Amino acid sequence: MPETPNPLKPLLTPPVWELLNSLPEYDDATSAQLNNALRKDGWTPETVAAVLTQSRLRRAAQRKFGDFAARMLFTAEGLQQSTRLPVAARHAQRFRRAGITRVADLGCGLGGDAMAMASAGLQVVAVEADETTAAAATINLRPFPEAQVVHGTAEDFAAEQGFGGDGPALSSDGTAEPHPGWGLWLDPARRDERSRIWDPEQFSPPLSFVTALAESGVPMGVKLGPGIPHSMIPPGCEAEWVSIDGDLVEVVLWFNALARRDEHQNLIRRTATVLHSEEPAPAETDSSGHEGTTDPLRVTVSELSSSTDFGAGAQVDPAGPSGLSGTLYEPDPAVIRAGLVAELCESLGGTMLDEHIAYFTVPTGAPVTPLARRYRVLEVMDFQVKTLKRWAQESQISSLEIKKRGVDVVPEALRKQLLPKKNKGPKRHAVVVITRLAQQRLCAVVEPLD
User: Fold this and answer.
1) Quick one: 396 exposed, middle or buried, by C-beta within 10 A (0-12, 13-18, 19+)?
2) What is the CA 160 to chain-centroid distance, rounded?
3) Integer Rg of the chain from CA
C-alpha cells in the first residue's frame, strides 16, 4: 500500500515558507486568480495547492488562535480538534496553580495547549503520534524554547518515562511522589479519516489508558468532547465543561492534584466554566453571587460547581405550565451539560418548569447572571401551528427566531409555515420559545433581555 503523501512537505523549505508568509489573507473570490498567478510565476501545482490550502486554514484558524495563526501550520483535522487559545490558557493556569513545572502533552496535535503552557513558563514535552501533525507542531512551537516536540505515541512515551507503570515512587515517609513536578495533559484523537469516533475505547489513546495513568497519582488533565455521557466519566475526578461565547467546546477531566476541592475539602465533581471574549466591564459579583473575573487574554470567566455526583445535586420541585411567567432563563450549554441547571435556578431564587427541560423562570425581578440568557415572558399559548400562524399574522411578524426544547420541531420548516413569503407591512421581529411541560406543548412569546 503506497504511503499517504505528507501535505505539509512542500511547505518545509525556506523559499516556500517565505512564499506562504507573503500571501495576502485567503479570499475565496480571488483564490483561482491567485492560483493562476503563482503557476505563471513558476511554482509547481503541488506547491501552489499546498500554500493555498494552508492560507485557507490560517484564515479559519484566526477564530481559535488570533494573530498567532498567521505564522502557524495546520491540518484540517488538527484544526478542528485544537483548543482555542483563551481556553488553553485556562488549562495552563491550572497546572501553574498546582505547583507543576513540567508537562507532558500526550497527543499535542497542532500544539495549541503546548503553546499556552510554554507561554505560562512551563517546560513542555509535546508528544504526537501522527507524523504530519507532529511536523506542524514543531513549526508552531519554534518560538517557544520551553517546548520540545517528540514524534511517538502517548502509550510509548508513558511507558518509557514510567508513568502509570509499577506505581509511583515513595518518599522516605512512605507517601507517594509520582514524578515530582510533572503533570500530564492528554487530548485523545477522536476522529479518523472518515468521521468522528464516539466509542471512548477507540480514542487514541483510549479512555482506559487514561484512567490507568490516573491511578498512578500523577496530576493529569484530559480533554474530551463535551457530549460524552456522564456514565462514562470515571470516579474521583473533576469534570469541567467549558463554553466560550455560547459555544460548548470541551469537557476536561482533572485528576489527582489538578482536581479542586470545595471549602469542606470535598472533591468538586462537576463544574461549568463560561467564558465571554467581549471587552468586559470591571469585575463585579453578579446578583446570583457568582463572581466574574478577567483573565490576561481578555475573556471574562464565570463558574458554577458542585461536589455532588451526577444526578445527586439540588432538588427543585418543577412548577409545570403554571410557572411559565416572569423571566425565563436559558442556561449556558456548559451549565446544562454539567447537570447544574437546578443549582443555578436555586441560586437565583427561580422555579424549575420541568425536571427534563433546561429552562427555569424567576417570577419577579430579573437577576443578571453570565451563566444564562434572560427573556421576559410576554404571552403564553398552546403550541399549535394554526394558533401560532394566526398570532404571527395578527402581530404582523416578518421575522421569527424559534427556540425549542423537548419538542420535535424543525425551526426552519416551522418558520416557513408561519410567515408570509412576501411581507408588505412593517418589519417586526419576534422570539418564541416552544417547549413541553408536563406533557403539554406550549409556546411563549418572549423578549430578550441580554
Assistant:
1) middle
2) 32
3) 25
